[in-house]
Amino acid sequence: MNVINGKWKTAIMSSLFFGKKRYVEIEKDIPNINSRMLSKELRDLEANGIVVRKVYYTVPVTIEYELTESGQEFRKVLDVMLEWGLKHRKTTIG
Question: Which helix (H) or strand (E) holds 71?
């Protein structure tokens, strides 16, 4: 749970479930996140082996982020959490 704690990490991972993206593309996918927070969260996810950062030495330099195999496996966890949430909502709200 420490790897995915916080408000933004699951949103970042969800953005990357659809393939590798550049920083600006991730930023556009997540409304209300500021650049400083996105950078911090990407660094944390990279340090924990969830996201890999690839640098391409083009002009200008291109940087892409993508989920590692472990990060992709987390999608299963999110799917189960979503299923539980929908059932829970149905039983509590009706």
Answer: helix 69-93
pLDDT tens digit sequence for 18-68? 999 999 999 999 999 999 999 999 999 999 999 999 999 999 999 999 999
| DSSP character at residue 59 | S
Q: Answer yes or no: are the C-beta atoms of 65 and 47 closer than 8 Å.
A: no
Cβ burial of 65 (10 Å; 0-12, 13-18, 19+) is buried
DSSP β-ladder status, 62-67 and 51-56: antiparallel
Say which residue the tokens 């995915």 belong to. 4
